[in-house]
Specification:
There is one protein chain. Strands 2-1-3-4 form a 4-stranded mixed beta sheet, with helices on both faces. It has 7 helices and 4 strands, in the order αααααβαβββα. It has 2 domains: 105 residues, N-terminal domain of the delta subunit of the F1F0-ATP synthase (Peroxidase, domain 1); 79 residues, no CATH class. The radius of gyration is 24 Å and the shape is elongated. The protein is an alpha+beta fold and 194 residues long. The termini are far apart.
Length: 194
């Protein structure tokens, strides 16, 4: 429940920034968001510092202004100041991730796609998969590749809530279930006839 509430908060703030940016400022704000995401990935202690409850809100406002004024769009800076005033800087990385996801879908027509394979995929294979998903879904896929040797072969592709299981393990599991149902149906017919 707490995770859901936290996810909802990050989504609300991401949507607020996206709407506030409007069509003209969206590319600039997205560049700011990517820059901030990179900063937090390279220096994870920075987010912990920004969220430190021992630092007064006014002092943190001054620090944010010193660090970002003239380096990010005014809207982005004001957004950071709002997060500070509402004690949401501890969620900054999650909010920025939610914003990037939202912008990918709404403005850029992209969607995140998870591709899981038993073996490593080369660049040519990844490009074929990307083109097939784009043709199937009508969007530009942002592919995240994972490897799982237990799949034995083939691929699992997840787009949102949709899972396409074209793995050897998945086929064997489906075959096992089909055989099991057939045996149960035969046993039921034999009991009824017997």
């Amino acid at each position: 429940m707490v995770q859901h509430a936290g996810k909802r908060v990050t989504t609300v703030y991401a949507e607020a920034l996206h709407e506030a940016a409007g069509a003209e400022a969206l590319p600039v704000v997205r560049a700011d968001v990517e820059s901030l995401r990179s900063l937090l990935q390279q220096v994870p202690e920075y987010e912990r510092f920004l969220a430190d409850p021992h630092i007064e809100t006014d002092a943190r406002d001054r620090l944010l202004r010193q660090a970002f004024e003239g380096r990010v769009d005014r809207l982005t800076l004001n957004f950071l100041l709002v997060l500070n005033r509402r004690w949401r800087l501890a969620s900054l990385a999650a909010i920025l991730d939610a914003y990037a996801h939202l912008d990918n879908v709404r403005r850029l027509g992209r969607r995140e796609v998870e591709v899981v394979s038993a073996l490593p995929l080369d660049g040519g294979m990844l490009e074929q998969i990307k083109q097939a998903i784009a043709a199937w879904g009508g969007f530009e896929p942002l592919i995240q590749v994972k490897q799982d040797p237990s799949l034995l072969g083939g691929l699992k592709i997840r787009v949102g809530d949709t899972l396409i299981d074209a793995t050897v393990k998945g086929q064997l599991d489906r075959l096992r279930d089909q055989v099991k149902k057939e045996f149960q149906a035969r046993a039921g017919r034999q009991r009824a006839a017997g």
